[in-house]
Amino acid sequence: MNNYFILIAIFAVTACQSKQQEALSEASMPQRMAAMKAPAPEQDDSSTDEELTPELPAPTGQPAATTNRKIIRNAQVRIRVSDFNTSGKAIEKAITQSGGQIANSNETKSDNSIENALTVRVPAARLDAFLTLVLKESIFTDTKTITAEDVTRRYVDTEARIRSKKAVEETYLKLLKQARTVEDVLKVEEQLGQIREEREVQEAELRQLKDEVALSTVNLTYYQQTEVALRPEEPIYAQIWHNFTDGFRLMGDVLVGLFYFLPLGLVGFGVGWFILRWRKQRRKAVK
């Protein structure tokens, strides 16, 4: 009789869990938006409503829809600087002042420029101030892009699902205490392990959202053009003359390179002459 009761309880909890998840995904956000637009009506203090509905902040001078928004703000900036080293130090100082940190750095050099590509994480509240300090080092701004993604709905839904999982987990723990046989214990623990695994995945997703909301990612590239890049373009006759002189220079380099192989040529010629002479003497001896 006890086994029959536990099996019925497990099926009931599983069915309630699936219904709660479907209801949360469809109805949680409209309820919150309605609560943000109008004063909240009086509600009873039942434990079920508190578990399934996230707590809303008390009304303040500004609407709750503005204060509780979860926005992910990122930026992409590419600037040209006059002095690579001086601007690099200034940018590092701006990162420190903004409470940020460098997640990645990639410095490259070419014939025309030297540049450094940074991935910077700064507090979202200080993103605008940080960009202002960075742009002070710019003599020309190639790119400045700021993106904002509203993840409020994902944030609220994930929190609600976690609370629902915790409530179901507590129910399974109570069933586990009532189990009397090994078979009942194994069935309850199997369901309990699945619930915990799903809850941990959702908690990891929520932590990721919190990190992305709290810290903005800035892909910052600053570079300095070299003297070759800044040199004005030469007229066509000057380019022809430079190519003509480069051709003679190349021929000279080839002739110089041949002298590197001259000792090897002399050694090879001597060895070949010695072998031919030895073969002639051998043929005469055979005859």
Structural account:
This protein starts with a helix and ends with a helix. 13% of the residues are buried. The protein folds into two domains: 117 residues, no CATH class; 96 residues, 2-Layer Sandwich (Alpha-Beta Plaits). The protein has nine helices and five strands, in the order H-H-H-E-H-E-E-H-E-H-H-E-H-H. It is α+β, with helices and mostly antiparallel strands and 287 residues long. A five-stranded mixed β-sheet has the order 2-3-5-1-4.
Which key phrases capture this entry?
287 residues, alpha+beta, Alpha-Beta Plaits, five-stranded mixed sheet, 18% strand, flat, DUF4349 domain-containing protein, membrane, transmembrane helix
In short:
By secondary structure, the protein is α+β, with helices and mostly antiparallel strands. The protein is built from nine helices and five strands; from the N terminus they run αααβαββαβααβαα.
Write the layout of secondary structure elements.
Elements: H1 2-37, H2 47-52, H3 64-67, E1 71-80, H4 84-97, E2 101-109, E3 113-123, H5 127-135, E4 140-150, H6 152-178, H7 182-214, E5 215-225, H8 227-230, H9 236-286
Parallel strand pairs: 1-5
Antiparallel strand pairs: 1-4, 2-3, 3-5
> Structural class of the secondary elements?
alpha+beta
Using the alpha-carbon principal axes, give the shape.
flat
Uncertain parts: 22-67
Q: Report the β-strand fraction as a percent range.
A: 15-25%
Q: How many DSSP helices?
A: 9
Protein name: DUF4349 domain-containing protein
Organism: Spirosoma endbachense
Coiled coil: 185-212
Domain DUF4349: 69-276
